[in-house]
Amino acid sequence: MNRPELIQRWIRDWQQGRLSRRELLRRVTLLGMSSFALANLTTACTRSQPTPTPASTEASPRVGAAIPDYVDRSKLDRELNFYNWSEYIDPDILTEFQETYGVKVTMDTYASNEDLLAKLQGGATGYDVIVPSDYMVSIMINLGLLEPLDYSVIKTIANIDPENLKPYYDPDNTYSVPYMWGTSGYSYDTSVLGQDLASWKEVFEPRPEVRGKVVMLDDQREVIGAALMYLGYEINETSDDALAKAKQLLLTQKPYVLAYSSQNNDDLLVAGEALIAHIWTGDALMSEQEKPTLRYVIPTEGCTVWQDNLCVPKTAPHKYTAMVFIDFLNRPDIAGRNANYIMYGSPNKAAREQGYIDQEVLNNPGVYPPPEVWKRLQWIKDVGEEGALKLDRLWTEIKTG
Amino acid sequence: MSSLATARPATTMRSKRRFSFGWAVLNLNVLLTFIFLYAPIIVMSIFSFNASRQMQVWMGFTLDWYARMIADERVRVAAQNSLVIALVSTIVSTVIGTLTALALERTRFRVKRMYEAAMYLPIIVPEIVMAIALLVFFNLAFTWLDQFFGLKLNFGLGTITIAHIAFSFPFVAVVVRARLADFDRTLEQAAQDLGANEWQTFRHITLPLLMPGIIAGALLAFTLSIDDFVITFFTAGVGSTTLPLEIYGRVRRGITPDVNALSTVMLLASIVLVLGSLLFQRRRSF
Amino acid sequence: MSAIDRVRVQERSLGWHERASERIRQSERVRALFLAGPGGLWLLLFFLLPTAIVFAYSFARRGPYGAVAWAFTLENYARLFDWLYIRVFLMSVWLALLTTVICLVIGYPFAFVIARSPRRWRNALLVLVLIPFWTNFLVRTYAIMLLLRADGLINNALQWLGLIDRPLSLLFTPFAVVLGLVYGYLPFMILPIYASIEKFDFTLVEAAQDLGANAWHVFWRVLLPLTLPGVLAGSILVFIPSVGAFVTPDLLGGGKVVMIANLINQQFLTVRHWPFGSAISFVLMAIVLAATMLYFRIGETRRI
């Protein structure tokens, strides 16, 4: 059997799910073909034969993965260190970057913004690309930890939705490119509580049957912020008056609360041990997949919006390659596949318009809310030292109360 | 010697008659404790075969998670790193810990009380404090070494191992010391009377008698190292991930059964090792 | 020999004694250095020095964006004189004490049985105790959560047996936290006690029985006092980490059981007020040091 025939057989195996994409690419590379040629062959195959669709992430048609001309190949390093949240990128994308650009990507993970900051402040070097959330970007800018981005290389920023650009924390996107975004509303079980819950009231002044079945996020700013919004204040309010009212509300809510947990809320919802949970978009989607009677709500009083961003630390050893990587991640097809894999909202307009994102996710108003809902969303911002101390004290009082 | 040999069976028989109810209760305690210790493990293993991603409902038997885990390169690298670090840390901690225990029990020197108190500090200090202290320290040290010696060091497996040894060896010392405390010194004195020097006495009398305590300490050190999260997180560098770090990072998105699969495999491997050593011991005994 | 000669002989032998004791003292010093050196050095460099830095932090101010701004102030310690924080300290000590006592009650008999088993089995049994801990701590904790849930195995079993009507709320309570802590630190109690019992001379038991002692007397008057070092070691190894635990109360307590380490974590990570976090850590360490010294005091008086 000659080479093309062999490859065609492999491609058919892959389409039918008998071969993983990684294995396919490995075999082809061993055969000595370039990915570019393979891509052409692959698209030719997919177009010519009606085949059963393989796993969801592979459904999107592939664009030829070539290095764009504005990238200077001679400046590329052989490796890149990506410091990211766990399970926050489709691993196939990293492999594809490696095979296209010839750069090996090592990924390390962290579990919170504060861990990331503590590491960087403590002096850990060696990370090329990091993914801080909104407020963390502003803190890092103020601490001088970030490198200005080179937009002659990151041309794909044009694909990003203007709504997600020029955020308050980085008005000119000098240091950050939006990666994923989401909201923090709540999910509840429609089969028990009915179809039309819409207010924070259900969470903070719940019905009696919900007693001991409410889960809140384990996050100072999120929980106190939600309480403030329900009471009609701004999420970043720190006046003594407002905080006293919030404290009162949260303490009367406490007997209804099963747990304060940012990790287990989806688990508890699916198990039915919690009927309402304060939750992030991605977790909400995942739990809806396991239990379709769940529904995610952006409350009428408003809720937080947050955005994770790609940044390059000042101490990055491979700055140019880092920027190229960011450019790569924002290609419509790549961004789309990524969003489908990790189930958060993608700020990549091109990906949405060119059909790379799952229809089902696109139609979920919890993930891609209509413009009028956008007005109800508020960003968590840094409140200065005094405010931070007040909030911290309040949080301690609530948790130990 | 012979009187001791006959004394032992007599004690056991008599104690069996007298304390048979007591022995039943004791053995029941052991059984219940083993059930208590293994119940969560068994639950976890069962769910590693569950066809559902969530750990609530049983949805059918599958080996998919195991396949996923084996194919997962990150997990492989993390497991490897964890094992290497744990082995090195255990060996060094056990040696240093034993030496320290000997120092505390067998020698006198002026600052001994302070030394003793200092020895307990790594056990007392909260992990997060030690973690951040080490992070800052290493950073300062690396900068200083670079400035004065041009030595460019960085965070990595080395810094993790050093940190692990720092918090493990006091545990070993405490365990070995408990064993040393009422040690029967007449045996050692007898050996010395017979002409053995200090090193020989140590090697042939003290050390073998101390061995159960040392082994207990080593097991403790290994356990501490292989499961540590906080300190490891702050002293790790690029690409040096360990199992706890990897798993903790994923927990944010919910524990998936492939993590359970990994733990089950580790469990089975340990059990196989124990059975193996038991068989090996049987072969060697007379 | 004349009196003067006798005195001269005495002087010479005194000199010889002095030189000998000087040599013994020197070799003692060398031995002490060799034995205590490695541990001491490691401790100094990788522990005491870093800790001193953090101690210095506790007197500093919070920087504008967190971390540390160098200054000298006692405000961090002053903040702690507040019922809000004192309550957390008390709760932590209480839970840690409970954990220690439970571990002792379960662990001592357990260690006893292992130490009395046939020699071949002992090491294997010890390792069997430790094997659950070679799996990952988080995975184990999640498994415990699974068991304790409202529709978890335990509640289901109790309901099936007809012992309860509605599920007990076991999870996200202090009960769950203590359970988790006991689960996590039981081997730390078992191992030292085992080491102590294992070298206990059981002929003493026979002697006591000959003298008319019953089982209780044998235990309380003979076995326990002589295995006290192991008990003390085990108690310290359980109490201290329990008092400073944070993942267990966080997960099993559902964020509702706040222990000192959770507070410290909050300071270092969320609020990024490193000086305050350092101050809390040092007060914790002071409390624990006091407890440790108390243990030593008990150990010394009992030793006779």
UniProtKB/TrEMBL annotation, chain C:
- Annotated membrane-spanning segments are 33-60, 84-113, 125-148, 168-197, 218-240, 276-296
Location of this chain's protein in the cell: Cell membrane
Database matches in InterPro entries: MetI-like, MetI-like_sf
Looking at the record, the residues that make up the ABC transmembrane type-1 domain are 89-295
Q: Name one GO biological process term.
A: transmembrane transport
Chief localization: membrane
Keyword terms of this UniProt record:
Cell membrane, Membrane, Transmembrane, Transmembrane helix, Transport
The record's listing under PROSITE patterns reads: ABC_TM1
Q: Give me the Gene Ontology terms describing cellular component.
A: plasma membrane
Q: Its family?
A: Belongs to the binding-protein-dependent transport system permease family. CysTW subfamily.
Tell me what this protein is called.
Spermidine/putrescine transport system permease protein potB
